[in-house]
Amino acid sequence: MNYCPDWIFDAVSAQAAKEFLVQEVPLRLIANKYAEGLSKKYSAIAVEEIEECAESMIRALDEVKVESEAVVILNDYCFFRLKFESHNIKRKMKPLFGSVDAPFSEKLFGVDVATKRFKAYLFSLRSGVTVQVTPGWKLSNFDELPFLKEIAEKTVNVLDIL
User: What is the distance in angstroms between the CA of the first residue and the CA of the last residue of the chain?
Assistant: First the structure.
C-alpha cells in the first residue's frame, strides 16, 4: 500500500482545523477537501480521520485556553510538521534518494498518535522550546510540496454540500 506519511497527515489535520476556525464552513467539507487531495497521491484516507484529528486538536487548544491564538498555533504546528522532523532537526526537503513525500508501505498515522504529537507540541510551546515560524508562512504558499499547496489553495463553501 501507499500510505501518507504521518507528518503530512498531522500538518493537513492542523490546516483543516485552522481553516475551520477561520471560515464559516463545516469541518466535514474542509476535511473532505484534504482527504480527496491526499487520496490522489496516497491510499485513500477517510474523511472521518482528518475530521476527528482536527477536532481533537481544537479540543486540545481549548483545554489549554488559547482561544485567541488558536489559528496562529495551528498554522505554526503545520509549519513545524512540514519543515522539521523534530525540534532540532530540519526535514530534508530534497533528499539524495527518493522523494521527501514518498508513500510509506505501512500506515503510521492515526488520530490518537497525531493528537499526542500535537499535545506534545503545545507543551513545548508553553515551555518556550518551539521552532519559530517564518513570518507570513501559509500552506497555500508552500512551494516545496506543490501538491499540498494545490490542495490548500482549493476553496470550499457551504454549497458544496448539495
Answer: 32
**DSSP letters of the chain?**
--BPPHHHHHHHHHHHHHHHHHSSS-HHHHHHHHHHHHHTTSS---HHHHHHHHHHHHHHHHHTT-GGGHHHHHHHHHHHHHHBSSSS-B--SS-SSS-TTPPBSS----HHHHHHHHHHHHHHHHHT-PPPPPTT--GGG-TTSHHHHHHHH----GGGG-
Phi, psi of 36 (to 5 degrees): -65, -45
pLDDT digits (tens, 9 = 90+) for 59-116: 999 999 987 899 999 999 999 999 998 888 888 877 777 787 888 889 999 999 999 9
Question: Scanning the structure block, which residue is given the C-alpha cell 485552522?
Answer: 18
CB 115 within 8 A of CB 53: yes
User: Which of 157, 140, 151 shows the shortest CA–CA distance to 26?
Assistant: 157
| CB-based contact 142:82 (threshold 8 Å) | yes
Q: What is the largest CA-CA distance in the chain?
A: 46
